[in-house]
Amino acid sequence: MDLPLRPRRLRSSENMRRMARETRLSTDHLIAPLFVMDGDASREEAVSSMPGQSRMTVSRLVGEAKELSALGIPAVALFPAIPDAMKTPDARHATDPDHLYPNAVRALKREVPELLVITDTALDPYNSDGHDGIVRDGDIDNDATIEVMQEMAVVQAEAGADLIAPSDMMDGRVGALRRALDDEGHTDTAILSYTAKYASAYYGPFRDALDSDPRVREGVPEDKSTYQMDPANGEEAVRETMLDLEEGADMLMVKPALPYLDVIYRVKQVSDVPVAAYNVSGEYAQIKAAAQNGWLDEKECAMEALTGIRRAGADVILTYFAKDAARWMAE
Ligand code: PBG
């Protein structure tokens, strides 16, 4: 054939492909989510729907953090498993400066100071109704929720959090958190906003890990669809991006990642700050379950998924594959 343009030339050998490669994935781009639970000994409890992940006591958590840091991972995102007895409808335990969560942050910053700690600012682990906001008259009270979150964020910053990450989707929370942090002198604490967080069924295994499902009860909304975004919407993610940038977000996030690659792309196109994507628990569980059945190759699929998320425009990825991916890349 008389065919002058042959794209296959650039695929002809590994070195040719290395030179032509458009997307890079390295440990620089990985953030490991971790679950912390109460307890004195160095212990962990497996999360059955997330093979390879567990809830850890603080001393076990510190050990894990040291390993992650040694592997070159720059940051962890920490989530607390709060005992049911401490959960209330007003989620007040979230603002206690001396409870499991800030204590875990302090331990991490003391023992592994270079590792960045991203704290979760949302009420669901503390809320006996299982929602990210305070339930009032069958609905989520946006502004009352933000008042609690402001105190919560200051407690987290005081404990040493490097980035505060509101995962709740209340309106106006980025600006309100920025003001609260600045008022208390935490001008250097960054905000990583969950900008476009969808009302997704892919959070199931995470809610198993923290026992944080919305409670099925009269007067409690049955799902999070009045605050998390409709999976059908992309334009709205651009609008949320504009608001978060105006309100002072330092980094933005899209969540989940794989069913929302177009949203990652759009958010990246219109923003001038780093964009994160959260490769969530259900996305992890899918690959793990198929691999356990011998139906998919875990390493190949995980690396392909992470590369795809980077190609879509994510600067960093929160992923339960972080530790394995860091090991695989070091092989
Ligand atoms: C809640 C929160 C959720 C996740 C992170 N923070 C679940 C939810 O919104 O119900 C999910 C993460 C995952 O599935 O890995 N603030």
Overview of the structural elements:
The protein is an alpha/beta fold and 331 residues long. It has one domain (23-330): TIM Barrel. 38% of the residues lie in helices and 18% in strands. The protein has 11 helices and 12 strands. Strands 1-4-5-8-9-10-11-12 form an 8-stranded parallel β-barrel, surrounded by 9 helices. Strand 4, helix 3 (100-111) and strand 5 (116-121) form a beta-alpha-beta unit. The termini are far apart. The mean pLDDT is 97. The structure holds ligand PBG.
Question: Secondary-structure map with pairings?
Answer:
Elements lengths: L13 H7 L9 E8 L6 E3 L7 E3 L1 H13 L4 E7 L18 H12 L4 E6 L12 E3 L2 E3 H18 L3 E4 L6 H11 L6 E8 L6 H7 L24 H13 L3 E5 L5 H10 L4 E5 L1 H12 L5 H15 L3 E4 L2 H9 L1
Parallel strand pairs: 1-3, 1-4, 1-12, 4-5, 5-8, 8-9, 9-10, 10-11, 11-12
Antiparallel strand pairs: 2-3, 6-7
Helix pairs in contact: 2-3, 3-4, 4-5, 7-8
The protein binds ligand PBG.
Ligand PBG binds next to α6.
